[in-house]
Amino acid sequence: MTSADKNNPDTSTAQNSSADLGVTVPKGFSAAAVTAGIKPSGKSDMALIRNDGPDAIAAAMFTRNQVTAAPVRYTQAHNDGTFRAVVVNSGNANACNGAQGDKDAKATAERVAEALGCQPGDVAVCSTGLIGDVLPMDKVLAGVDELAGNLDQSIAAGNAAARAIMTTDLVSKEAVYHGDGWSIGAMGKGVGMMAPSLATMLVFITTDAHLPSSAMAHQALASATPTTFDCIDIDGATSTNDTVLLMASGASGVTPDAEEFNAAIHQVCLDIGMQLQADAEGVTKRVSITVGGAETDEAAQTAARVIGRDNLFKCAMFGSDPNWGRVLAAVGMAPVKMNPAGISVSFNGHPVCINSTGAPGARTVDLSGADIAVEVDLGVGEGRATVWTTDLSYSYVEINSEYST
Amino acid sequence: MTSADKNNPDTSTAQNSSADLGVTVPKGFSAAAVTAGIKPSGKSDMALIRNDGPDAIAAAMFTRNQVTAAPVRYTQAHNDGTFRAVVVNSGNANACNGAQGDKDAKATAERVAEALGCQPGDVAVCSTGLIGDVLPMDKVLAGVDELAGNLDQSIAAGNAAARAIMTTDLVSKEAVYHGDGWSIGAMGKGVGMMAPSLATMLVFITTDAHLPSSAMAHQALASATPTTFDCIDIDGATSTNDTVLLMASGASGVTPDAEEFNAAIHQVCLDIGMQLQADAEGVTKRVSITVGGAETDEAAQTAARVIGRDNLFKCAMFGSDPNWGRVLAAVGMAPVKMNPAGISVSFNGHPVCINSTGAPGARTVDLSGADIAVEVDLGVGEGRATVWTTDLSYSYVEINSEYST
């Protein structure tokens, strides 16, 4: 089972107090967090996860943004099915820093490798925060040394690591799955610049399953992300630093059935994904948009994404305003086949538009709750997909107009 | 010359007091405005423009949204190079009203035709306002009768018509061009749902030029819109009702040179376009985004549009925050060729990013003024384009979260 009940996303914010969540739940993983001094706030800002083995299998997904951060380039270059550790800093994205950024990402990995006694190519590096400032490497390298000295297999160490990767996240995000004799743990961060295009934000998944090959890890991750992280679209903005990393220690000695493993990874990705949605910048409404009646599932997802990115629709959701005309206006611009006279829309199960015409009572549907389910039928086929987004609130504008200054 | 100085968009809001602007400046046009009672505010909400001839040449551009309003469908169906009049209502878009909407658009045109003694197919119909409410036809038809009785060739009548088509517009939008013995007048409305995809919002252009054929009118309009209205992208949302209509009366007896005519129409479209940008919902910054160094002009426009639609970038502009990393993160998702390590950005002429790396002083560039010019170079070619957008402010959220309720 997962930690969060998908029918009641409020439970997803309660995991901080839970002791049985996170990346150190599976056997064979140590974690640590420190305050290296990168964040002006003085909060913890570096984390390290070590795979204590016996296996060191890994799979990773990265941003599709053409402008990639230096740590993404470093980790991509060494993404050969094996990682023994991942080091993460928050407060600075190490993106758009030219050759200096690449040099700093490499130096960070080298220091971790030295401290842990492995190769630099066995260390994944991730950064998140402001784009365009050079990393304070004195603080980062001192932080690495301290992290290496603090590694611990306790659940609390994993919880601390989850807090150390937060930026404007209000809560840390962790999940767990228990199989028969094996388990999966996960942590993630991300609140803005959130429109994955393969993978999103920083998400770290650990398992003590013994996987026969990295292909099984890759297969599970690659099949989970398209219908979980890739279906979250908060603001249409895809980060330069997005990374999802799965590491398998094999410490349980159990090799799960591939189908169960894939389903479990999917469940954990969805769990973390729903926590990301629930903590998105300025969120007051969690909005799911399901499009059916499309020609294909891909067309349905495209249409759902177009609605989810429409600022006018998102403002209406903020105002609890059942202004369904904005759904029609938005979806009409989706580059997919639809029957313009045969579109139907419902809000929270109440039909508000039938055959592209207002339904009785449409203007009085109550959208005052925190969760809004929008269903749209395009009237041309069987394709279906769901995208998760949020409303567009004053707080979103406030947070994002004051980020770097 | 046009009414607004493009180097100082503030002048564009001063046109209300100017007596020499609008659709009745050219000879051969009458206009009228009435309060039919469609708007709850009690402000004027219907306008009529009649081409008094001798010619009745017309050209029109419409929204590319697949979901079109009934008046758009009606006008498209009769768009044969001739319109004698256009009737407009604000306060109700007559969109997504099914067969009733089509019936109401047709009945409106028929009533106008009856009152003016022309054919219903010679009447263009436009509506703007809330989507999904059926038109109050008793008020609309009474309004048509009153409009027909009030038609007047005075400048004041054109000014009144420009005010009657406003929705959340704070100022009316009018323009004029004076040729040698002939002239062009124009009015437009539009503040949100503004991301034209051929034409945008409601814009009405009149001229007393004697055009040898409707092909000349169409040619001028079709060549002007791609670099004027099509380059405004306030919120990525394309209306169901967008229409640009050009009518030529021939009353001056002068046939302008086609090149001059095209340039004049372009200038008037740009003038109205800049007024639309300056009055966009919640605007506090007018932002121009020029992308150069792209493979083609089209690629440059695509990249500029991706930046202009990025909410994180727009929030930074609202905060006068020179957070250039958001420009890089946004443009990196544009589906065009770029050199990810060779992108440069300037704000108001100050380089803030050179070869994808921060420039000295980048964080202290002053963006406190109302106009921000962003220049981006992708480093791969000679393609170049400009898109005009605005910031994303608290007011935008306020206006759009309280629109229908």
Automatic annotation (TrEMBL), chains A, B:
It catalyses: L-glutamate + acetyl-CoA = N-acetyl-L-glutamate + CoA + H(+); N(2)-acetyl-L-ornithine + L-glutamate = N-acetyl-L-glutamate + L-ornithine. Its EC number is 2.3.1.35, 2.3.1.1. Residues 1-22 are annotated as: Disordered. It is found in: Cytoplasm. The active site is at T200. One of its GO terms (molecular function) is L-glutamate N-acetyltransferase activity, acting on acetyl-L-ornithine as donor. Keywords: Acyltransferase, Amino-acid biosynthesis, Arginine biosynthesis, Autocatalytic cleavage, Cytoplasm, Multifunctional enzyme, Transferase. Pathway: Amino-acid biosynthesis; L-arginine biosynthesis; N(2)-acetyl-L-ornithine from L-glutamate: step 1/4; Amino-acid biosynthesis; L-arginine biosynthesis; L-ornithine and N-acetyl-L-glutamate from L-glutamate and N(2)-acetyl-L-ornithine (cyclic): step 1/1. InterPro entries: Arg_biosynth_ArgJ, ArgJ-like_dom_sf, ArgJ_beta_C. Its main location: cytoplasm. Substrate binds at T167, K189, T200, E281, N400, T405. One of its GO terms (cellular component) is cytoplasm. The record marks T128, G129 as: Involved in the stabilization of negative charge on the oxyanion by the formation of the oxyanion hole. Residues 1-19 have a biased composition (Polar residues). Heterotetramer of two alpha and two beta chains. Catalyzes two activities which are involved in the cyclic version of arginine biosynthesis: the synthesis of N-acetylglutamate from glutamate and acetyl-CoA as the acetyl donor, and of ornithine by transacetylation between N(2)-acetylornithine and glutamate. Belongs to the ArgJ family. This is Arginine biosynthesis bifunctional protein ArgJ. It comes from Corynebacterium macclintockiae.
